[in-house]
Amino acid sequence: MYELNALEAKSLFQKGKKMTEMLIDKIEPVTTAGLQQTPGIETYVPAGGQPVLHCENIEKVYGSRGNITRALDGISFNVNKGEYVAIMGASGSGKTTLLNCISSIDRVTSGHIYVAGRDITNLRSKQLSQFRRDDLGFIFQDSNILDTLTAYENIALALTIKKVPHREIEMRVAAVAEHLSITDTLKKFPYQLSGGQKQRVAAARAIITNPSLVLADEPTGALDSKSAKMLLESFDMLNKNLLATILMVTHDSFAASYTKRVIFIQDGKIFTELVRGDQSRKEFFNRIIEVVSFLGGENNDVL
Amino acid sequence: MYFKLALGNVRKSFRDYGIYFITLLFGVCVFYAFNSIASQQAVLQFSESQNRIIELLAGLIDGTSVFIAIILGFLIVYASRYLIRRRKKEFGTYLTLGMPVGKVSRIVVYETLLVGVASLLVGLALGIAISQALLYVTAALFTIQVDALMFVFSYEAMIKTIIYFGVIFFITLVFNVFSISRYKLIDLINADRKNESIKLRSLPLSVVLFIISLALIGTAYYLLIDNGLVTFDSQFATSTVLVCVGTLLFFYSLSGFLLRAVQSNRKLYFRGLNMFVLRQLNSKINTTFISITLVSMALFLAITSTCGGTALANAFTQNLAANTQYDATLSLTLPGQNVDRTGQAPKDEGNRYSWYPQAAADNFDMLTTLKRSIPEWDTYVSNAAQMNSYQTGMTMKDLADQGQVTVKDDIYGQSMDQASLNAITVSEFNKQRTLLGLEPVDLGSDKFLLWCNFEEIKYVYEQFLAKSNTLNIFDTTLTAASNTLETMPDRTSSIAGNTGIVVVPDHLINEKTPLASMTLNLMYSGERADVEPKFESALYAAFPGPSSISDNARIWPFMTSTTAMQMEEQASGLTALIAYLAVYIGFILLVTCAAILALQQLSEAADNVSRYHLLEEIGVERKMTSKAVLVQIAIYFLFPLIVAFCHSLVALNVVVKVVSMYGYLDIALPLLMTVGAFLVLYLAYFLFTFFASRTMLNQKAVV
User: Fold this and answer.
1) What is the pLDDT, as a whole number, of residue A189?
2) Are residues B31 and B120 in contact, defined by beta-carbon separation less than 8 angstroms?
3) Mean pLDDT, residues B233-251
4) Domain count, chain B
5) Are residues B367 and B508 in the same domain?
6) What is the full DSSP assignment across B550-585?
7) What tens digit of pLDDT does each residue of B127-184 get?
8) pLDDT, average across residues B591-613
């Protein structure tokens, strides 16, 4: 029912691309006024970049008196518009808690999180829904797409809940599907898709609303290496071509090497940060491995 | 230990068990209350005929209870299967911890017993309370004075309830244990991760099937209306089969059709959560369409039986006053074709005319014989008037033909060329009018009147009078004295049953005119309630036993007697009978349907938690998800009801036609009341399901 011939697809794609670019242009520059850089923390700020995400000394404490676990212990960092950042850390380092707090699925104990200039730590439930709908895109490890909907409908869902007119939905789905090379699979149901295809559908759904920030939680975790590579290349493309700001949580050095910057977390604190700069992916990968093995070694010393 | 676990489980999952428990409670309490009706005889002072009705009612309820128990058994097995399925993961944990399957089964056995015993106890207690209320309802229906506070308890009904439900619980238990022993550990552990595989059917096929289903249902409606419930022939069977198949197909293809229809309007399809809701419906229909069809048909039965029953009972009572204007009627039908008043009994007929000499001696005057046999006659009866009807040699069809009236091709029309048309004299007709306080009529020597009050045939005479004002009868041509049909009652009876009499001038009838029947209407000298018992006992003392058209039977001076009070008692008894049965069946069916729908939706909500969770994560507002849940549940509750309602309307339409021979039938009020009461209960189940589902879906959701 959503059959498009190649020609239509191409024209739709071009329209969609134009529209996406137009929409991206329309995103207003985020004001940084009033935001303070936390002293003592090195922050990478590319020239002319705007912080889309600004975390300010966030803490997350579980448990009650006497039995306290500090999952996040004063984390501060910025992610600027158009950046592609990975957060790495061992199991239990707090990286998933951090992502849950940023995505407003969990609440911080103290500190502030600003997304597109808005403090999300004191939003109410309804505003949080709107925030997730309008400003965030999600990609999870277990490709959370609805099994009852076709790939097309799963992608369109992100727009229908924003009450976007259906003509625009059609154009934008066609465009984003073309970007992610899933045009052929749009009519299929999730059970007919491979893991990689499912993740790319999830990526399409995350990106189609032009969110301020795309959050990916171990997106390659459940994929074989070939699919993982394809997905990471898709992310790279989304970042470069559609200027998507992506924050990816992973413990996979290979996945992290695709990003521009890697933040390492240990025991709820930022341990260090690597910036790729002009290095090749291979060189960057080696540097990441060094930090990871250092972290592992340090742990071994403790043990 | 296992018992403790079971108790904890029941207490913990009270919300899950809630609707199951409440429905069980309803079942037990209604079952006991209705089965205890026979014991009301011990408490209430019923008359002889009322006692017979109560016994009949008790017998009918006894039989119906088997059917009810099967329905409830089905519900309970279904419900507990749902509850077990909900807890696969929990059982998985027990098995992982090394608990043997037997012990897990034991937990389930304890739980089933716990809920069963609790619902039996509470249900019986409630049932005993309800049966007290029923006592007063019966008293009101039978117009029996209740002076003191009374208590009724039926030991038999209690034992019966315990046995029936004991068997049901036992079957449930066997089912539960069996299904647990069949589970595989891996499936139990992964129960909440595994999605039901979605079998998809082609949407165009759904549309075609949907249209076919509508055509089938339409054909079934046509056949039923055409058949008119008059005979249960192959046409009726075809109609029944078609409507069942049609309904099944309807629910099989409905979600696909809805999906396809909404998809063709992309603006609507791509709005909010519309496509999500439609896909949800479509993904579940494979597993639900059979139960939805059963629910719809059961609702149809519930509505039709309750409405039809109430309406039938109403028809009897509503027309009762009009049909019982005479205090009593004694009548006889002549056993042969050639009985006249010449004093010569027909020959060669065995002993069938042994009564004839006496009748001839009394000059065929019923009153003369009666007064001689009952000396105190005049103290009971103030006024009496006899009316002989004579054979005219014509059939009703002949009259219709004379007036060029087109007779309807229904069962009455078809029997018209068999039914003979009778005549009475105007002087005897006027005596009846005087009895009712009406002015006498004058027919002169060449006029006639038509007299009929049987609803389904009146039109023949009315059209006759409208088209023609002459009638050839007894070799004479008469003109109509009036072109309105006379409709006053000809006797006291429960229904207006005069299918047509011609009133002719006296001179057309002589002693050689063959008789058809004789009727004596009479009025008491005082109040019915005061006179009737004395009158009846005197009458039966003088003329004992029933009579029939057979050799040596009593025919003279009367064969049958009916009194206004008897009719009233019968009508109130019948009302009670029908009302009780209709409410019993209707209520159980309705509660069962609503409970099945509720459980189905709750189990679906449980399956949907992860989907709604995802919706919240991508930023769907709670208001929007709530609306989606509401729409989804509403569709499940609404469509079976709408279909059942359509079926019922057609069926009741036919029932009305059949019942209307008992007089005017007002179906609007009973229909409204039944539908009203049903809707309230149905709505309660719907709201419970909605709120429970919403809580379930919001529970695990994000902050």
Assistant:
1) 86
2) no
3) 85
4) 3
5) yes
6) STT---SS-SEEEEHHHHHHHHHHHHHHHHHHHHHH
7) 999 888 888 888 877 777 776 677 888 888 999 999 999 999 888 888 888 888 777 7
8) 84
Domain ranges of chain A: 6-31+85-103+133-302
Lowest mean pLDDT across A44-48, B129-133, B294-298: A44-48
B164 and B106 both lie in a single domain: yes
In terms of CA atoms, which chain A residue is nearest residue B284?
A148
Mean pLDDT computed over B324-329? 90
Q: β-pairing, B447-451 with B476-480? A: parallel
Residue pair A113/A53 in contact by the 8 Å Cβ criterion: yes
Reported residue count of chain A is 303
Q: What is the pLDDT of residues B204-232, one digit of tens each?
A: 888 888 999 999 999 988 888 877 666 66
Residue B270: which of A128, A169, A189 has the nearest Cβ? A169
What is the dihedral sign for C-alpha B96, B101, B102, B107? positive
Q: Looking at the structure, do residues B238 and B386 belong to the same domain, yes or no? A: no
Q: Characterise B388 by phi-psi region: left (phi > 0), alpha (psi -120 to 50), beta (else).
A: beta
Same domain, B359 and B230: no
Does B26 share its domain with B168?
yes
Going along B545-694, which residue ranges are E strands?
560-563
DSSP H or E run through B349:
none
> Is residue B441 very low, low, confident or very high in pLDDT (cuts 50, 70, 90)?
very high
The reply to whether B329 falls in a domain is no
ipTM of the complex: 0.75
Report whether pLDDT(B702) > 50. Answer: no
Question: Could you tell me if B130 and B149 lie in one domain?
Answer: yes
User: Tens of pLDDT along A274-301?
Assistant: 888 888 888 999 998 888 888 775 554 4
Residue B313 token pair: 């009972």
Residues of chain A contacting residue B702, judged by C-beta atoms under 8 Å apart:
104-106
What CATH code would you report for A6-31+85-103+133-302?
3.40.50.300
**Cβ–Cβ under 8 Å, residues A147 and A191:** yes
* B454 and B340 both lie in a single domain: yes
Domain boundary among B511, B530, B554: B554
| Burial of A120: CB neighbours in 10 Å, binned 0-12, 13-18, 19+ | buried
Q: Which tens digit of pLDDT belongs to each residue from A181-223?
A: 888 888 888 888 888 888 889 888 888 888 888 898 888 887 8
* Single residue among B132, B165, B194 that ends a domain in this structure: B194
Q: Return the residue of B nearest to A153 by Cα.
A: B275
Give the tens place of pLDDT for each residue, B352-405.
Answer: 777 888 888 888 899 888 888 888 899 999 999 999 999 988 888 888 888 888
Distance to chain A for B702, nearest Cα, Å: 5
How near does any CA of chain B get to the CA of A276, in Å?
A: 31
Predicted pLDDT of residue B426 = 93
Determine, yes or no, domain membership for B295. Answer: yes
What is the residue type of B620?
V
Asked whether the predicted pLDDT for residue B121 surpasses 90, the reply is yes
Put simply, whether B625 touches A (Cβ < 8 Å) is no
Is B330 among the domain residues?
no
Please answer yes or no on whether A130 and B619 come within 8 Å at the CB atom.
yes
Cα dist. B411→B354, B416, B440, B660, B661 in Å?
A: 36, 9, 35, 13, 11
pLDDT at B201: 62
Rounded to an integer, what distance in angstroms lies between the CA atom of residue B176 and that of residue B105?
Answer: 8
Instruction: Tell me: do B72 and B160 sit in the same domain.
Output: yes
Q: Which residues of A touch B276 (CB under 8 A)?
A: 146, 148-149, 153, 157
Q: Which of A126, A135, A146, A168 is the mutation pick for testing B, counting most B CBs within 10 A?
A: A146
Range(s) of the domain holding residue B65: 1-194
In a domain, B561, yes or no: no
Task: Provide the angle, in degrees to the nearest 10, between the axes of the packed helices B155-182 and B48-86.
Answer: 20
C-alpha distances in Å from residue B449, one per residue of B393, B401, B480: 18, 17, 6
